[in-house]
Amino acid sequence: LNILQLYELRKNYIKLNYSLTEVNLQLLKLISFPLYLVLIVIFSSIIMLRIKQFNGNTIKISFGLFCSVIIYYLNNFFIVLGSTEKIPLVFSIFIPLLLLASVNILMLNKVNEK
User: Fold this and answer.
1) CA pair distance 65, 48, nearest whole angstrom
2) Separation CA 4–CA 70 (nearest Å)
3) How far, in Å, CA of 84 to CA of 96, rounded?
4) Which tens digits make up the pLDDT trace of 17-63?
5) What's the CA gap between 31 and 29, in Å, rounded?
6) What is the reported pLDDT for 79?
7) Residue 53 per-residue DSSP state
8) Which residue of 68, 69, 90, 111 is 20 to 30 Å from 45, comparing CA positions?
9) What is the pLDDT, as a whole number, of residue 74?
10) C-alpha–C-alpha distance, residues 47 and 88, integer Å
11) What angle (nearest 5°) sits at the alpha carbon of residue 91, between those of residues 84 and 19?
């Protein structure tokens, strides 16, 4: 669903007195998706272009795949926590983004030190 359809669905859920948790979660995911893509592109470019300790491209690609699986499961873990309302929805969407941004900053600092 796009943003307009989600807002319409949200209005209907309010009228019917349904839980808005899943709709709000999808709205937040849709709004934060461009930032997520930017952070993933920065992360992958740091891995492929700047890390000199990995000699071959095969090792870099394997490391990138391993990191992408870790990021995927971490993201899903926080989404599950948000959808079950263990943590607020805003935190469930933006904590993985903040973690990814902090890893990017740390990796950029190590690249700049070399």
Assistant:
1) 12
2) 32
3) 17
4) 898 888 999 999 999 999 999 999 999 888 887 766 667 778 888 88
5) 6
6) 93
7) S
8) 90
9) 94
10) 32
11) 40
- Written as six digits, the tokens of 77 are 């873990």
Q: What is the dihedral of CA 65, 70, 72, 76, to 10 degrees?
A: 160
Q: CA-to-CA distance for 1 and 17, rounded, in angstroms?
A: 21
Question: Which residue is it, tokens 């983004």?
Answer: 97
Place of tokens 């935190």: 91
- In this structure, the chain runs to a length of 114
Residue 54: predicted pLDDT? 65
Residues 32 and 95: their CA atoms lie apart, in Å, by: 11
Distance (Å) of CA 48 to CA 14, 35, 45, 87: 47, 20, 5, 35
Query: How far apart, in whole angstroms, are the C-alpha atoms of residue 20 and residue 24?
Result: 6
